[in-house]
Design goal:
- This protein has 192 residues and is mainly β.
- Helix content is 4%, strand content 56%.
- The protein contains one helix and twelve strands, in the order H-E-E-E-E-E-E-E-E-E-E-E-E.
Length: 192
């Protein structure tokens, strides 16, 4: 019979951390990263790491039915003012769906949801997004960075590239490991 504590330990997954920064070194599968906070981090990419390029796109690419992620700041009236929008590829529809606090800026939020409606407004694009537990009204000012993810390969993981790793697993020995790396292409800094 397996002890309950053993079952709990098996059920627990390694804690994850979000890493934003610039790749300084690539040594085999190990990345040396200068984080946006200025500290140094080492992250080992798994052998089957998924690499995605983060590329600029246009606000006009956000259409009804698109699955998007909105990094935003809450407004006093309850709407969200976008500071960045990323359009997910169709095969990532449903990824991390919902609304939650985010760490782009103090008090920022992230909403991953389907666009239900989009209307041109006086201060930008007004978008209604719906997710499984609710909906949010979002204003996207004209100067908001809009990006999408494009499947890429390890050749994009190189010194000087900006990256975001959404969920690097923190191993028992304190090391970090990533199964997905998102790298800015053509000088793009992932804005989320």
């Amino acid at each position: 019979m397996v002890a309950l504590s053993s079952l709990c330990a098996i059920a627990q997954q390694a804690p994850t951390v979000r890493i934003r920064g610039t790749i300084e070194t690539v040594d085999g599968n190990t990345l040396g990263i200068k984080t946006r906070e200025g500290s140094d981090a080492k992250v080992r990419m798994t052998d089957n790491v998924a690499v995605f390029a983060v590329v600029k796109t246009d606000l006009s690419e956000i259409k009804e039915g698109s699955y998007i992620g909105v990094t935003a700041m809450p407004e006093p009236d309850g709407t969200q003012r976008a500071i960045a929008v990323h359009i997910f590829p169709e095969n990532q529809r449903g990824a991390a769906e919902g609304f939650r606090p985010w760490d782009a800026l103090p008090n920022s939020t992230m909403t991953n949801a389907t666009v239900a409606q989009t209307v041109k407004g006086t201060d930008g694009q007004n978008i209604l997004v719906k997710y499984k537990d609710g909906e949010k009204k979002v204003v996207v000012p004209p100067d908001t960075p809009v990006v999408t993810f494009v499947a890429a390969d390890k050749s994009e993981v190189k010194p000087g590239a900006k990256l975001i790793i959404f969920g690097a697993a923190k191993k028992e020995d304190g090391s970090l490991e990533a199964g997905r790396v998102n790298v800015g292409r053509d000088g793009v800094t992932p804005p989320m």
